[in-house]
Amino acid sequence: MMFHVRPLKPKRNLRFVKLYIFPFFLMFLIYTLTSLLTATSLQYHLSSSLMKQTNIHVPTEYFVDLLAAEMTSMESPHLTNKKIQSLIFELATNVKIRDNRSLLGREIPGLSIYNTEIAVAGRGTNLTTLPVESPPPSPDQLEETEAAIPNQSDASQKSNEGTAPADPDAVKNSVLIYHSHSWEAFNPLLNLTKSSQDPASTNIQDNVIGLGEILKTELEAKGIGVEHDETNASAELKKKNWNYYQSYKLSREVIADAMASDKNLKYFIDVHRDSLGKELTTALIDKQSFARLFFIVGKENQQYDKNLQLAKKLNEALESKYPGISRGIFVKGKSEGDGVYNQDLSDRAMLIEFGGVDSNLSELKNSAKAFADVFSQYYWKAEEVSTQ
Transmembrane among the record's keywords (predicted)? Predict the structure, then answer.
């Protein structure tokens, strides 16, 4: 008696694969991928850039209000359906109801430069007086020029006559002063037949490096150790074949090297100058002329909140003692500038712009001295607390 095995029909073969082979293969694939993703040696983490951006731009109080809608113990008298509706509208359209710039900014060329957020407004600060970042300098501007004033280091020493500065060798450096745009200069310090809208120079007597040296001297007179980096940023960018927009990448290397070589550094100050003219960048305080200053805080980093709080404390102290010296605190994201400004490296990082293109030496010295005065009070108070 013979038995004949009938071959499986094509439909049955397909059904067998679907029921048994495919699920087994799928489970094996999932198991393999899960094992790879959870391996201790793997440093990659899955994340959603959309969720990250949502968390950055949506205020914390909105999340609290949404929780309160479900948890009666968290109910707030300020919660309204209108508030939640406005949040949903903003998330869906990327248009802020109370900010016309969010509606017109993408439609009108050039309006996007006014996206800078004013965290604290100084005297006369509004959307029409926002800071103006210097454009890339031309090669002609970076040619060595003869200084129109005496050596600034000598001048800064004269400004401290009668003050007994601390011995720099006996004090540990806790402040780093550096310059991402070291070429930014000041018209009154240059031998120019005609003032420039954006003066630039590699001569440290004319540019912000000279200002940084004045600030260093003032801080050292208060007993604070300072390291001042005088890197010629334009020359280094050219040497590396980098462009102007990589200047913060260059200064990041400066900071990293300084932090690696000196563990005592706690505060990092990037000194710039604004591109606006005399009227908006000068203040008369007690019959003395000061170069007005302001803070820039990058919001695209995890240290944003702490750096913003530091700027607010210093700004408040400056305005209290020298009314009108500050133009305020400005917050910038990626769409308005670098967005980080190397402030992710420390929760005590500052970008400060002193004066403008027409600020003279006397005004710059007065402002550097005022900032050193206020900063030293904050510094020594913080040191006292940390040692308790």
Answer: yes
